[in-house]
Design goal:
By secondary structure, the chain is mainly α. α1 packs across α2. The longest helix has 23 residues. It starts with 6 loop residues before the first helix and ends with a helix. The model has no long low-confidence stretch (mean pLDDT 89).
């Protein structure tokens, strides 16, 4: 991943990764729950842009606005999102290890590792 990384960037990336599998109905129960909780939390802030969270490929302008929306939240809210995103990354990783998802394990581990560096 080039450029600066943020909690918002990783959150939107994870939501997009999970979105396709969610649409196909192949997320494990724990992953489906983690995805829904994170999507609902971000959607509450994203207002009219919330529908884009259901998409696998979010248009760049909407993606940037959603990322910015996350980044302007108070620190406690951003850390809560970080924890929720990390939980989603770990659940997705478990689904990949079970063979039910075709998402890059390395990418998930990279995102989760970077999320854990934010304080």
């Amino acid at each position: 991943m080039g450029g600066p990384t943020t909690i918002g960037l990783h959150t939107v990336t994870l939501l997009a990764l999970a979105s396709e599998a969610a649409k196909r109905g192949i997320l494990g129960e724990r992953t489906r729950s983690a995805y829904a909780r994170l999507r609902e939390k971000v959607a509450a802030w994203a207002n009219s842009d919330a529908a884009a969270l259901e998409e696998v490929h979010i248009p760049d302008l909407l993606r940037s606005r959603i990322i910015d929306t996350i980044e302007v939240q108070p620190k406690d809210d951003r850390l809560a999102i970080r924890n929720m995103a990390s939980a989603l990354a770990q659940s997705l990783r478990d689904d990949v290890l079970r063979g039910s998802l075709g998402i890059s394990l390395r990418r998930l581990e990279e995102i989760d590792g970077q999320l854990k560096t934010f304080t």
